[in-house]
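Structure representation.

___
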Amino acid sequence: MDKIKYAYKRVKRKIVKAFLHFLVLVVYRAKKVGEKNIPKDGSYIICANHVHALDAPSLVLCLRREVIFIAKEELFKNRFFRWLGEAFDVIAIKRGKGDIDAMKLAFKALKNGKLLGLFPEGTRNGMAKGEKLHNGAALIALKTNTKIIPVGIQGSFKFFKKIKFNIGKPMDFSEYAGKKNDKEVLDMITKKVMDEVVRLTNEKV
């Protein structure tokens, strides 16, 4: 039974990725800038602005390396997003509840040399709405001594309007490794990362 479920999941993943790949490349005319800033191996945290429900899967499909995203558990109440989440191995997290299981999966992904994706805004266009930024990426970076790669997503995901992923250089916060429980330090790191994300989002490429 487990083998059948695994085979079904692989087929479903291929179908979903093939369909979305068509959307990303043809409908949204996706363009990558600065992918050389993502090393060919090793674990890194990807932090981007959150503009649309499809920005995470689009980024996953565009990059050469595998990215495992963390997303709020509420999204999985929607059947379509739950389907997408299963296809892309998304880690569902209970926000504000100290979700240890989700954090363990995130740490495991980084330990296995994967790219871990997060949206510090927490919700779509969070900064524009005045939402408080989340410190999850900063916390994970300090706990695992992992560099953060900022990404600015440009575009609105309207049909046949180009989407651009502007990828910045890795940001190293290892000097703060002993301060993972210091909220002021976490806030500072999150702000620095998102300031760079905003710069990349507004940069003409």
Observations:
- The first strand starts at residue 31 and ends at 33.
- The helical segments are 2-27, 55-62, 79-87, 100-111, 136-144, 183-202.
- The chain is about 40% helix and 15% strand.
- Residues 2-27 form the longest helix (26 residues).
